[in-house]
Amino acid sequence: MNMTTTFLHAGGRVLAACMAMCACSMVLFWGLEGRSIASETDRGQESPSLVETAEKTLEQGQYQQALSLYNSAASASPGSARVFLGRGTVYEMLRKPQKAVKDYEKALELDAGNYRAMENLAGIHERGGKKIREAIELYRRALGLDPRPEWKENLAVWIAMLETRLEEHGPSAVQLWNRGNVSLAKGDAESAEKMFTQAIELNPLLFQAFFSRGLIRREKGDLKGAISDFDQCLKRSPSFPGGLVQRGLAYEAMGRADQALEDFKRAAELDCTNAEAHYHLGRLWEENKEYDRAFQSYRTALKQKSKPDIRSLISQRLSSVRPKVRISERAKPENAVEKKRLW
Questions:
Q1: With DSSP H G I counted as helix, E B as strand and the rest as coil, what are the percentages for the chain, rounded to 5?
Q2: Most buried residue, 33, 36, 89, 303, by most Cβ within 10 Å?
Q3: Helix, strand or coil for residue 165?
């Protein structure tokens, strides 16, 4: 078993990652980068330096300090939707959804067109499971206002998925997808694949079902089928890094290293915290003997949060490529001297 296979199979990590995805809200789309606080539609007034400091502190993960700054900003600028949107995000990070709801509602009261507040508030309603209709309505409003193409795609998918949860008769696409994951966890890949196919038939927008079925097909050696599924997944959700990573691995298994490299690069660009994307990108750089690039990719991967066994694999590759980078670096002074003489 080679290192790529070990990385994918040990402990069922890919399956666990797939099952960890929320059926509808898809936590992977709710990172701070995607939820930038400054809103193009914000018509409130605030103290720029104070709010900007709060936003930077939030992005750095210093939530208590960010909360203190936003509290001060709210006192100084009680008419700023941007302030309440930001503080609501902090409350979510601190796992205080009720307070976040109040701030998002306040942001919308101050700025009825604040699509980010709509999206964040809808996400809370959705995850709570009791206000699905309210979540759908908020997502629909945001869909007409959010100018970002990738978010319009995500919103359309979420709306369709949530609507299936309102169906009263028969299993929904999301239910079948969840059942498929349960079957897969039990080792019954054949039943899981059938359920994923049924989910796709019920809701062709359910990109997670294409993704899950693609994983099974790749494991079976049906690489063309897997790539077809990952293509469909990415057609519906072009900004899904997981789909790019898995398609890249399928391309690599088919000997199409150039296309695999492009997918890994794109995944790393879309989600700079994706350790798996940086790891596989590093592997291909290393195979191409571009050791400096491989070293940088491995080092970036190691900085991200990941499971101990994954970190171990990354550390091994980093240690392996480090001596080759040093050789490259030792050659640089000579090149520098040569360039200096030329000039």
A1: 75, 0, 25
A2: 89
A3: coil
